[in-house]
Amino acid sequence: MGVFVFQHDKVSDQKQDKKQILFSLCLWIGTTYLSLI
User: Fold this and answer.
1) Where are any strands of DSSP class E within 1-37?
2) Distance from CA of residue 35 to its chain's centroid?
3) What pLDDT is stored for residue 29 in this prediction?
């Protein structure tokens, strides 16, 4: 959740933010998935 707040802070380059959020989301889903196995 903190990542989203941090990314929202720098609205100046939104395209980079979207890529960063997507990456963080994928990473979080990946780690959650691995811990569930």
Assistant:
1) none
2) 18
3) 93
Distance between CA atoms of 36 and 22, rounded to whole angstroms?
A: 21
Question: Which pLDDT score is estimated for 16?
Answer: 74
The answer to whether residue 10 scores a pLDDT higher than 90 is: no
Query: Judging by beta carbons within 10 Å of its beta carbon (0-12, 13-18, 19+), is residue 7 exposed, middle or buried?
Result: middle
Residue appearing with tokens 């890529």: 19
- Whether this model's pTM surpasses 0.85: no
Q: Is 15 exposed, middle or buried (0-12, 13-18, 19+ CB in 10 A)?
A: exposed
Question: Whole-angstrom Cα distance, residue 17 to residue 21?
Answer: 6
